[in-house]
Design a protein that fits this description.
Elements (H helix, E strand, L loop, with lengths): L9 E5 L3 H12 L3 E5 L15 E2 L10 H10 L7 E3 L5 H12 L3 H27 L7 E2 L2 E5 L6 H12 L5 E4 L13 E6 L2 E2 L2 H14 L3 E3 L4 E7 L2 E6 L5 E2 L2 E4 L5 H5 L9 E12 L7 E3 L4 E6 L2 E10 L8 H11 L6 E16 L6 E4 L5 E5 L5 H18 L23
Parallel strand pairs: 1-2, 1-14, 2-10, 4-18, 6-16, 14-21
Antiparallel strand pairs: 3-9, 5-9, 6-8, 7-8, 11-12, 12-13, 15-18, 15-19, 16-17, 17-18, 20-21
Pfam family, one: DAO
Keywords: Oxidoreductase
Protein name: D-amino acid dehydrogenase small subunit
């Protein structure tokens, strides 16, 4: 690996979502001068309309046998919580085949072991941001998980037992009483303590303000075209502005990561798994997050309203908003809720979650000296963004490998130019 003679002074981060902004903030902790470029604006990708769960014990690899079976059913059912576009591209089909090959219990457990160090450091990284001046709160509250039949909770209990065995603090209890916002159709509720939630839009705005107040630049509407070596070293070319000189570069562009990552030797595909959300009126403020596994829908407090988020649509990242997916979420959760007015839907949103075939993110150096990537977190970019940024900033600024990031080598699976060892 190329080792620079001194820590990089100027670092350009491509992407102003949770992962990119958190990386920029922690780079500033090491003394870097940071510029963040985004093709649109702060949080415009998969971050803004996220459910806002900060639930590390639920941040597990997506490929697993049960999800694969559900996905096969979803091929024929456009209302399924997991749905594949009727006309997938060859690249999407190749991704799904690789995903299916890794949807085994053994691979899932290996992925869980890899993610556990990130999960264990996730909430502490949010605390570091707060202590450093990021003026947006995180809220500690249990997650209530509702099931139509008592026996339906066996799968989640088994999964969380594996998470506990891997080294996380899992506090799960059964609730004796079932009340609002659950309807009488929910007959079993589990309470998961020790987790948090956040308003992603508010938090990202505060995180961006903190980066700026510490001397960083955030440039909206700056779509990165290329990263290359120029006469003075690394430079980042955009489609609209002059090149940005850099001593190091971090690519954190979410579902758009392949456009740039392929040019620096990263061949592992990243597929958009599009999630939809909206806000709904409520009879009273929701005191804690709620999850309905039967519908794969999450509800989060959002002031006087409730954010409702769900679905996994395997489709092109730039496909237009599909209102049928919002209607499908409403139909799927309506029987299980009371006190939530699903006729009062506002702020509909879609964002492309960046998925990898093995369910593990891509974090670390690439073939091009000084260029790193951070992405592919799937549904857990908000939860794991700050801890990712903290660990990657250490790698960028010291050129020393961080053991916790070893399993997330962007050049894994025999990509061309894979580093030896």
């Amino acid at each position: 690996m190329h080792v620079p003679p001194h820590p990089p002074r100027r670092v350009v981060v491509a992407g102003a979502g949770m992962v990119g902004l958190a990386t920029a903030w922690f780079l500033q902790e090491h003394g870097a001068e940071v510029t963040v470029l985004d093709r649109s604006d702060v949080g415009a990708g998969a971050s803004w309309g996220n459910a806002g769960y900060l639930t590390p014990v639920m941040a597990v690899p997506l490929p697993e046998p049960g999800l694969l079976r559900e996905g096969l059913r979803g091929l024929l059912d456009p209302a399924s919580p997991l749905h594949v576009t009727p006309r997938p591209t060859p690249a999407t089909l190749a991704f799904l085949l690789r995903f299916a090959a890794r949807s085994t219990s053994g691979t899932w457990r290996a992925g869980l072991a890899a993610l556990t160090p990130l999960d264990r450091g996730a909430l502490a990284a949010f605390d570091e941001l707060a202590a450093g001046g990021v003026a947006a709160p995180t809220h500690e509250a249990p997650v209530l998980i509702g099931f139509p039949d008592p026996g339906d909770d066996a799968g989640l209990r088994h999964e969380l037992a594996a998470v506990r065995a891997a080294g996380q603090d899992v506090r799960l209890t059964a609730m004796a009483d079932v009340g609002p916002p659950f309807s009488e159709r929910i007959r079993s509720v589990l309470r998961l303590d020790g987790q948090r939630h956040v308003d992603p839009g508010r938090f990202l705005s505060a995180l961006a303000d903190s980066v700026r107040s510490r001397g960083g630049r955030i440039v909206a509407g700056a779509r990165v075209r290329a990263v290359r070596f120029g006469p003075a070293g690394l430079q980042v070319d955009t489609w609209t502005d002059r090149p940005e000189p850099a001593d190091a570069v971090v690519l954190a562009t979410g579902a758009w990561l392949p456009e740039l990552a392929r040019t620096v030797g990263v061949r592992l595909p990243v597929q958009a798994g599009r999630g939809y959300s909206f806000s709904a009126a409520a009879d009273r403020p929701l005191p804690q997050p709620v999850y309905l596994p039967a519908a794969r829908v999450a509800l989060t407090p959002l002031g006087e309203r409730v954010r409702v988020a769900g679905t996994m649509e395997i489709a092109d990242r730039d496909a237009p908003f599909d209102g049928r997916r919002v209607a499908a979420i409403v139909r799927s959760v309506a029987p299980y809720l009371r006190g939530v007015d699903l006729a009062d839907v506002r702020d509909p949103w879609v964002g492309p979650r960046p998925l990898t075939p093995d369910g593990l993110p891509l974090i670390g150096p690439t073939r091009m000296p000084g260029v790193h990537v951070a992405g592919g977190h799937g549904m857990w970019g908000v939860t794991l963004g700050p801890v990712t940024g903290k660990l990657l900033a250490r790698t960028v600024m010291t050129s020393h490998p961080v053991p916790e990031l070893g399993p997330f080598d962007p050049l894994r699976f025999g990509s061309p130019g894979r580093r030896p060892g």
